[in-house]
Design brief:
The structure is a homodimer of 583-residue chains. By secondary structure, chain A is of the alpha+beta class. Chain A has 21 helices and 11 strands.
């Protein structure tokens, strides 16, 4: 069994080139400097880089972890070197604008490459993610001089970045952030407060770390409408524009976590640190939301990445591990046992559905950004609908598939050497950070449903694909099951929409199940499209058709439980007071 | 939030005294030396011991772990002392016979106490479990002189024990065990081979470790019919009956595992070690099976224990953690959020159903052992039916509930300090060891269904309880839902039984779902009984009725997905050859 990462190039290429309308992107003005051939070369090179450079770091990072030494974070051996190779390769800037040194390639391609980064080493991938997110924040909201001072080095990956939101008393409830920003009168601000769970809050890769901080100005309104966004560098820029004196930002703690051990999760103390305002006063949260799409999609990518990496290891193990069968004969390979096959099929079905859904969402974001003007609103609406589903279902698929991989390997999966149990630990946080999955579900039902026609657009796309498949016998059978599921989803949606005004607590009670239901149906949609695309005789195409059928037969029936849960209402949750429930 | 374990005494007492026919046990001759009052005192004392002595060790054990030093295992600080306190308290011998120094109390009580041991520290609980299992093996199969030489010190906990089954090429497939036993001509045997995954294969608590080893005699038949059972002490007994010279049993490795880090999982090399035969030649596996009930029930107990401990921490956190609500008001406690409640209710519903089911199964094993002669066969049949369900669903409940606890705590749950993520890691192996859950499912459909009338007995009990509840309005509503689920299970069972001869591969494909379906229905049965028992106005009784309703409304609908999966057949798993599936 290979210890290191093997990139799923064939599967990525299948989705990009055979399922999505990928070529169309390169006819758009924004991407006409590139073409499918170049994009293919980038993908191949990404696979090579991540297999060779990052893959071997994953278990070292887990074993040693990042830790605090004399007030600074020390990352595990090899990470710093790998980071600079990543920078030299131009990987931080794939989808960032040309004018700041980026490559302005589609987000779709970036997401495919990010799957490989995160499949090789999620702990590593966290820093480039923060850099891209911070860059997008600056480009969207910062004044020109700030962009000029910070964007080029961020885009190049020469400087690190963090996003500082959470505080001890303010996790999901960002409105209670209490970090203070005091105007100094010279256009700058003095920030004081303590931020927790800051990913790569410190590191030893880059000379500068650009902290994007939500804080509260004096007399700011309570709640989220009183939050402003500040850029707080770890070192103040000198007159020459280079990082100079240290700013008053100190790391007091690196968390001891279940996983992602190489990615330092810091408590960051702002002790009168100097910062500049980004965007308007009290509009910080709204500004932060411009990077939410970037971040949530990337967490979905992380989930797919772990699911993909875990699948590859389990599939290879099952294909090589002899166990069982008549005692006088050579043992059977475990891939032949029905229950092992069941797990392997679930792994493939879940992973590949989510991979396709994530890339479809990235594709819609590309069209929303750079497509023909008439296409943009619809693409954005569809992407906005799919994003919370991708984030929640992607993160859960990562964890579920990693766990199935452990089960396929049995006792060997539970020991560290196989490199599989790490996937379970690393992926566990994905359901929590960047908006816990319960928050994603509320976002879906309260913000994405109703106005905007997003749901209608989503289901219209599915029905169009169903119509297209109706004439082809095997696809028609898949389609009938999907159509039944879609009808059940329609019924649930009508109930949820009706409940939004009349019985919001009932909607909240069913929100998690509703999101899961949308995810299962969206997965079925992806498999219908993949099965339709896989119309040849190659092993890959035969496998896609078989896994599509498995998804429809075995996973799609989850709708039957989920529809009950969507409809269950809050009465069964609210019959006990808090003390009786928890006492 | 309390860092340490809080024993669920009230919940245990509720099941024992209000749901089960517990008092009846103490009217049986085997237990008439005890009574409910004594049993209650034992339970209270167990709670105190496990909260005070074992609870504080759990995180230390995780952090430091057991490791190999100069060829011997060194356990974490405090474990050895705690072990001897456990021995002094008489805890190893609760349900072992009086004549060897045990207390001959019901297994039902032992299981309740074992929940508290494992809730406080699963890693600790592994050794007493091995000792009880080894003792039962000896009592059932060893010649008198061996029993006399080994049983008293094992029962007293003065000597440790292991069960040595797995080898590198023989995990679930025990028929391929290749460890050799050569007769020496003096009634003793020389054993050579290497065993893996040996729990407490070495430790620094006891001077003697009694290894129970499956090995193969010369010219033994291939497969499981050629396995014999041997007792191999770590130190050979001298003429005085005390441990003397070291036997040739060596630890070459302690695994680096995902969890259970204080419990040393060893590679054990038998290098011409001396052993004695236990039971008949080539009947070793059958002998081992006399302890399977003990072991599988205990794994289910472990799952319930972790679920219970994780639940308590999450419930307390939710009751104390402010987060959300209008920004100008004091923050809401998270227990008031619908989605947090949903998770807390799932945790309670799953944990308490499994706790009741496990204690019910222990109770049936007590009746099977010590009940009126006419009751024994039925009780054994019911217990045999429930055991694989307890093992698989109990282990999965432990992991599911631990994960929900992490989710309730959010980012705080992902860091080690909260002591919750450890539950996820510790419980992950429970679905694997002592017969992976896929093996439990095969056991249920191929051995427990069909002949023996076990299924019929199980469903007859449920229907009797349904009849009893029909007249009481709230129970009748729960009952109708349960009856619907039971009817669906009946239909699935008919299909599975028919498939056993005609289409065994289809049965295997649906086996995991079938076991899960039985588990969900059995949980509903437990909740019906608990709701019926909780007919008073106390907070505890009100909570039980509310959680019962939640189980029926929210969890029982899982049958609708599971029934599809039971029926799905093997075609969707077998359409690809191994290479195409895994390539």
């Amino acid at each position: 069994m290979s210890e290191h990462y093997m990139a799923p190039l064939d599967d990525l290429n299948f989705v990009l080139n055979e399922v999505l309308d990928y070529q169309r992107l390169f006819s758009l003005p924004a991407y006409e400097h590139a073409d499918v051939k170049l994009a293919g070369a980038v993908l191949n090179e990404s696979a090579r880089f991540n297999e060779e450079v990052l893959g071997p770091l994953n278990s070292i990072g887990d074993e040693i972890g990042s830790r605090l030494e004399n007030g600074r974070v020390k990352t595990p051996p090899g990470f710093r070197d790998a980071y600079w190779k990543y920078v030299e390769g131009g990987w931080p800037a794939l989808d960032l604008p040309l004018e700041f040194g980026g490559q302005a390639l589609p987000l779709t391609l970036q997401a495919a490459c990010a799957e490989m980064v995160n499949g090789a080493c999620v702990s590593f991938g966290m820093l480039p993610l923060m850099e891209r997110a911070a860059t997008r924040l600056l480009l969207a909201h910062a004044p020109r001089d700030i962009v000029a001072a910070y964007a080029p080095d961020l885009v190049a990956g020469k400087w690190g970045a963090t996003i500082c939101i959470s505080e001890a008393q303010a996790g999901s409830d960002v409105g209670r952030i209490s970090t203070r920003a005091q105007p100094r009168g010279d256009g700058r601000y003095t920030l004081s407060g303590s931020k927790i769970f800051i990913t790569y809050g410190d590191q030893d890769y880059t000379e500068q770390i650009v902290h994007m901080v939500l804080a509260r100005l004096p007399d700011a309104p309570a709640g989220t409408r009183g939050l402003s966004l500040f850029l707080v560098p770890s070192r103040l820029l000198g007159a020459d524009g280079r990082p100079g004196a240290a700013n008053a930002v100190n790391v007091s703690r690196v968390e001891h976590k279940m996983g992602l051990k190489a990615s330092p999760t810091c408590v960051l103390n702002l002790e009168g640190a100097e910062g500049v305002l980004i965007g308007r006063e009290n509009a910080g949260l709204k500004a932060m939301f411009t990077m939410v799409n970037t971040m949530r999609l990337e967490v979905a990518v992380q989930g797919v990445a772990v699911a993909g990496a875990a699948s590859v290891k389990a599939l290879r193990y099952a294909a090589e591990r002899p166990q069982g069968g008549p005692p006088t004969a050579r043992p059977t390979l475990i891939v032949e046992h029905a229950d092992v096959r069941r797990m392997l099929y679930i792994m493939r079905a879940r992973t590949e559905a989510m991979r396709a859904l994530v890339l479809e969402t990235a594709y819609q974001l590309d069209i929303a950004q750079a497509g023909a003007v008439d296409d943009r609103a619809g693409a954005l609406a569809l992407a906005e609908w799919l994003l919370p589903v991708c984030k929640a279902c992607g993160s859960e698929a990562g964890f579920e598939v990693a766990n199935l991989a452990v089960q396929v390997l049995g006792g060997h999966g539970y020991v560290a050497d196989a490199g599989v149990e790490q996937y379970v630990r690393d992926s566990r946080v994905m359901s929590i950070y960047e908006g816990a999955n319960g928050i994603q579900a509320l976002d879906l039902v309260t913000r994405k449903l109703g106005e905007g026609g997003r749901y209608e657009l989503f289901t219209a796309r599915i029905r169009a694909d169903l119509t297209r498949c109706r004439g082809q016998a095997p696809l028609a059978a898949l389609g009938r099951a999907l159509e039944d599921a879609l009808n059940r989803l329609d019924a649930c949606t009508r109930a949820v929409v009706a409940g939004l005004s009349k019985a919001p607590r009932d909607v909240e009670a069913g929100a998690a199940a509703y999101l899961a239901l949308v995810g299962v149906v969206a997965g079925g949609w992806m498999w219908l499209r993949m099965a339709a695309a896989a119309n040849g005789g190659s092993a890959q195409h035969r496998a896609k058709r078989a896994v599509a059928k498995f998804y429809i037969d075995y996973l799609l029936p989850e709708v039957r439980t989920l529809e009950c849960r969507v409809m269950v209402g809050a009465a069964c949750l609210d019959s006990l007071d808090a003390e009786t429930l928890t006492g």
